[in-house]
């Protein structure tokens, strides 16, 4: 047909509206996803991310059968790593946030002076072993009280640091400092005095919820599964080979289970979402271009039809 009737004009209108609507839906969806990703990246994990190297080791076996052997190894390794040029702080911890093998030890928790809840309702908390310099190496903020010191040794009173999530939950509106708590560490109840409160951490990703956490000094509870946390003045990744060698200077047979930087660990957790966001953004851009070309073609076709209709009418 050389003329466009009402049905054809309606079809053209439907095509134009459909292409515009589809392009807008994809663009809005991509925009919301990009906005959500940007909000996620800006979430505070509770610790610094730049210039921090992490090296995970498991000190077990024939050479580490006693607590004295484990303490001696970690003390020597820490001392050698502190001597590396560019290293500012070095600590060790069991539960390293964002680490694939995040050692999350959980146990029952009681507050001294309060009635013990029934066994089924007993609160559970994460129990983390850390050295004094761990908090400064990670730049974890101190909310109240103090951090661990070298005076918190095996022969001294048992002490603990809790995070502010636990402080708000069990001591709302009051201070937990100098309060006594009892935790169940692998079947053994240990009573200790709270000496400090630190900020809460997100362990399993920027979109994960912080968990209640009790920190125990390494010197009072030596553990074999530890991660060295090294804050540096320069690029942390460049110092990892040297830091690994310092550990092997103490024990050349000890394997490294994970060596990385915190920036890399955080980036790994964001990789799947970053890929989906980028892919949808590319598809949204292509949809917009195709819709623009399609609309242009349809409008041009409709305009040509009107010109032909006008020409036929004049004849």
Describe this structure in words.
It is a single chain. With 315 residues, this protein is α+β, with helices and mostly antiparallel strands. It is 42% helix and 23% strand. The protein contains 6 helices and 11 strands. Strand 7 and strand 8 form a beta hairpin. It starts with 5 loop residues before the first helix and ends with a helix. The relative contact order is 0.22. The mean pLDDT is 86.
- Give the structural class: alpha+beta
How would a textbook summarize the main sheet?
6 strands, mixed, barrel
What count of helical segments does DSSP give? 6
What gap, in angstroms, lies between the N and C termini?
A: 17 Å
**How much of the residues is beta strand, in percent?**
15-25%
Radius of gyration computed on alpha carbons: 30 Å
Helix content percent band: 40-55%
Q: Can you give the mean pLDDT?
A: 86
Which residues sit in consecutive blocks of at least 5 with pLDDT less than 50?
A: none
- Order of strands, widest sheet: 3-4-9-6-8-7
Order of helices and strands: HEHEEEHEEHEEEEHEH
- Count the strands? 11
| 3D shape | elongated
């Amino acid at each position: 047909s050389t003329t466009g009737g009402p049905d054809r004009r309606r079809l053209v209108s439907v095509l134009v509206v459909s292409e515009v609507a589809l392009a807008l839906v994809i663009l809005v969806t991509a925009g919301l996803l990009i906005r959500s990703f940007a909000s996620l990246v800006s979430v505070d994990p509770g610790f610094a991310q730049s210039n921090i190297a992490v090296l995970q080791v498991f000190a077990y076996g024939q050479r580490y059968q006693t607590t004295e052997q484990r303490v001696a190894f970690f003390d020597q390794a820490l001392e050698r790593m502190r001597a590396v040029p560019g290293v500012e702080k070095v600590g060790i911890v069991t539960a390293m946030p964002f680490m694939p093998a995040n050692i999350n030890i959980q146990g029952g928790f009681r507050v001294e002076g309060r009635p013990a809840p029934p066994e089924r309702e007993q609160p559970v908390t994460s129990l983390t072993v850390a050295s004094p310099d761990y908090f400064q190496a990670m730049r974890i903020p101190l909310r109240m009280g103090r951090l661990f010191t070298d005076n918190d040794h095996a022969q001294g009173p048992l002490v603990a640091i809790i995070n502010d999530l636990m402080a708000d939950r069990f001591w709302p509106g009051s201070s937990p400092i100098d309060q006594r708590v009892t935790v169940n560490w692998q079947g053994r109840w240990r009573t200790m005095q709270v000496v400090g409160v630190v900020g809460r951490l997100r362990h399993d990703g920027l979109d994960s919820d912080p968990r209640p956490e009790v920190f125990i000094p390494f010197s009072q509870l030596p553990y074999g599964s530890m991660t060295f946390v090294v804050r540096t003045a320069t690029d942390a990744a460049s110092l990892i080979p040297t830091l690994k060698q310092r550990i092997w200077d103490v024990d050349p047979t000890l394997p490294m289970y994970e060596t990385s930087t915190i920036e890399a660990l955080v980036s790994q957790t964001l990789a799947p979402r970053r890929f989906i966001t980028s892919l949808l953004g590319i598809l949204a851009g292509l949809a917009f271009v195709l819709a623009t070309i399609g609309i242009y073609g349809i409008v041009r076709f409709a305009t040509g039809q009107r010109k032909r209709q006008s020409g036929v009418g004049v004849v």
